[in-house]
Amino acid sequence: MLGFRSSGWRWHAALVLGSPASTSPSPIHPRVGPIVYLRRRSLNLTGDTGGGKRWCCKEPRETGVHGGEGRRLKSAAVRSPDAIEVEYADLNLKDFYGAAPHLGHVRIRQHVNPLSSSFSTPAEVPEWKSVFRDPTQPLMVDIGSGSGRFLIWLAKNCRERGNYLGLEIRQKLVERSQFWVKELQLENIHFMFANAMVSFETLVSAYPGPLILVSILCPDPYFKKRHHKRRVVQTSLVNSIAKNLSVGGQVFMQSDVFDVALDMRDQFDARSDVFEHVGAIDHSFLCDDQGWVLHNPMGIRTEREIHAELEGARIYRRIYQKHTQYLPCTNHI
Ligand SMILES: C[S@@+](CC[C@H](N)C(=O)[O-])C[C@H]1O[C@@H](n2cnc3c(N)ncnc32)[C@H](O)[C@@H]1O
């Protein structure tokens, strides 16, 4: 199950399986509004009920004006880049711009077409030993990792918990992310220039350790109906996640575009033989009456999430868990 705790504890974003629910009361924070106190959460990789490894987020976060967690900025007039600098201040990434000024402001095209032939070649599987200090550790994959700050923050603050792999289709972003990884001397994170639609299966099936968490956070919306097939969450990706995720592993997805969130929800609901929404199995997750998870469980917001919330948008979240009694059904793959 997933739980948060702050104030005296540091925030945690970790996933626990099968441990008994014990939700603390939700006191009102005297300064900034309600804070949800849930249990620390950890991800049990073995399926035992005693708690396991945790995806933890060390930094304390305050609840902000929009009711979510995170170091919210209270004025809508605050610019996204400033808000991002504040939220990710402890990474000190600005310090590294001097060493590579061209990486400070990466100019990229707004969207690419993942179905074009230039993105159809699967990424080469890396020598895992050369990219992770210990490639047998549990793996979290972030699909569409964007700037990479979100995953770097997790990798830096949760070093002992496993490895982090970011898949991103825009090469310049990957180059900058990898530059930051090197400067921060992190040995548990790697970014790859890859079209997740064609490379996810190849990469994760070749990883030596267990896949325990997949995140798909604010994927590109491709609003036009004729472009929906460019959206990263397609049946083949869902089936590949279903196949490769460890039993008890989880999928965290969110979008500020309701139609995109619905689309992702429908795709994962269609594999109810494999996935169960956490709201149905763990009442310590706070969901609205439609089953959207109300809080980001990771303890840090993604850049798109920060931007969207500054604009007053709502984030729609779902978290799925692979059934503990899942029996592989190969005809889906
Ligand atoms: C809107 S951004 C969100 C980035 C980040 N997850 C966040 O929430 O801030 C979506 C990202 O997904 C990437 N992307 C889109 N399609 C992709 C694909 N097929 N494979 C890998 N990355 C993809 C885009 O290049 C972009 O960086």
UniProtKB/TrEMBL annotation:
GO terms for molecular function: tRNA (guanine(46)-N7)-methyltransferase activity. Keywords: Methyltransferase, S-adenosyl-L-methionine, Transferase, tRNA processing. It is an enzyme of class 2 (transferase). PROSITE patterns: SAM_MT_TRMB. InterPro entries: SAM-dependent_MTases_sf (IPR029063), tRNA_(Gua-N-7)_MeTrfase_Trmb (IPR003358). It catalyses: guanosine(46) in tRNA + S-adenosyl-L-methionine = N(7)-methylguanosine(46) in tRNA + S-adenosyl-L-homocysteine. GO terms for cellular component: tRNA methyltransferase complex. Its EC number is 2.1.1.33. This is tRNA (guanine(46)-N(7))-methyltransferase. The lineage of its organism: Eukaryota, Viridiplantae, Streptophyta, Embryophyta, Tracheophyta.
